[in-house]
Amino acid sequence: MVEKKRKIKRVLIANRGEIALRIMRTVQELSLDAVVIYERPDSEAYYVRLADHAILIGEGPRKDYLDIDRIIWAAKKTGADAIHPGYGFLAENPDFSAACEKEGIIFIGPPPDVIRNLGNKVVARQIMEKAGIPFIPGTCDLPAGSEGIREAFAFARTCGYPVMLKASSGGGGRGIRKVTDETDLMVQLPLARAEALAAFKDENVYMEKCIESPRHVEIQILADSHGNVMHLGSRDCSIQRRHQKLLEIAPADLPEEVLENMYDCAIRAAKEANYINAGTVEFLVDSRTNEFWFMEMNTRLQVEHTVTEELTGVDIVREQIRIAEGGVLEIPRERVRLFGKAVQVRINAEDPKNNFMPEGGKRVEVYQSPGGPGVRLDGAVYQGYKIPTDYDSLLVKMTVRGYNWEQTLQRLKRALNGFVIVGPKTTIPFYLAICDEPDFRAGRFDTSYIETHPQIFDYPEPEREIAKLARLIAEIHAHKVNKYAF
Fold first, then answer.
1. Residue 367: beta bridge partners?
2. Considering the entire predicted model, what is its pTM?
3. Over 90: is that where the pLDDT of 468 sits?
4. Catalytic residue set
5. Using an 8 Å Cβ cutoff, are 78 and 64 in contact?
6. CA–CA gap between residue 377 and residue 162 (Å, rounded)
7. DSSP secondary structure code for residue 454 in this structure
8. Domains in the chain, start-ordered, CATH in brackets?
9. Judging by DSSP bridges, how do beta strands 215-223 and 277-285 pair with one another?
10. In whole angstroms, what is the distance from residue 156 CA to residue 176 CA?
């Protein structure tokens, strides 16, 4: 499908926090106007201060960021001719893409039918089957009632336990349950339906063979409306908790022939789905044999897109905007050489030792960030920032690049030690413990890493004297005088 070219002048960013600020930077680099929306709890947010235009959409929390009509109203009110959804909230909602299309607003993402098809995991599997792409054995949507139970039992007996129950409209690691035997299946199936209905307003679930302790590898793709599709390499997202990614590495450490096969599958998947814009094709990989299977395709910008940008030098958001305008992909293949290694860590205001409990409501008394070669920060935190209780606890994403794995680890550890964040507990000491863990240093990890390495939670608490010193430094900088001097 070839779309008529249309130049974008003003972009409304239908998101908040770190990703709103990251998108804004590219929008402003292109000399376009950046419009942001915000709910009342975000009134003092960093991204609101830096936008060309900001518009209050409601009292919140969260519900206004999910209100399609309200966001379309904000776009019309501010004269925005395009909307970038970021990630989360409405980013993978086909009705949002369709509403933009209906109102003549450019949606910087895939068309609604593509989002709808790939958002339904059963339909997505059918698309991949047609494209000849390997996927994990699974069922269609399980019927309601006793018939669904019978189908689930039959499938589990055929492929063997454990199996996975998944929400058909799931995403972001939600709606996934591991089932270990028939008794467990009877308990989990109704719970999975209820969870799917609550999270996605769709109670349909399906069953899939469980691949034990795989690696989670994804391929970043770009596709324009002229039929051109290209990949930007791979990312290893295996280190997770409760199916939520913590740390991402690019490229994945797999044999070249395996990666080339995955790249080919990702491109074929995008073409079969008539994909347009940026997306990610995700695979599970057997850690022993390197056999891989299609898992899902994310129809949005990923949180971890920064590691790919650092290796390739490609601004993915810029390419998203160009594609949405009807432009042709013009990135030379030699740009995608992926020299070195890049790692992203998500520094959250959470207590890893307390089941990653968020530190909402606390204030960042001191914030000093690292820098130097190979360090990129994407965040919306500042000194005096109050951790929100109503939104996610992400403070800043840090991406570190080196010419090989050893140097990248050295830089990651140096940069983590360079952070001073006083007030909330953070995931920084947890990541430092991972940096010193032998299996991680050797590149041996899969999706069970957190569960099989409990020693990484035995890190020492940050020293209180460092916090006192940091407060003193902040006081000196703020008042240009050391009131504690003798």
1. 421
2. 0.88
3. no
4. 300
5. no
6. 40
7. G
8. 10-108 (3.40.50.20), 137-209 (3.30.1490.20), 215-464 (3.30.470.20)
9. antiparallel
10. 16
